Here is the input.
Amino acid sequence: SESSSPTDASLLPQYATTLAARGRAIPWPPERGAECWCGSGRVYGECHGEQEN
Here is the structure.
């Protein structure tokens, strides 16, 4: 439900099903060289996929 709390982890499977039904699901993790999911225009590995040392 849209009135549910987004922090309720028990709703994650339902959320994933809804995204898939709407054609909005993306594979995870992104393929090598794929654009980052955040919309920055950078590749995932150089953006949110960057590993801290």
The helical segments are 12-21. The chain has one domain: 9-46. The first helix runs from residue 12 to 21.
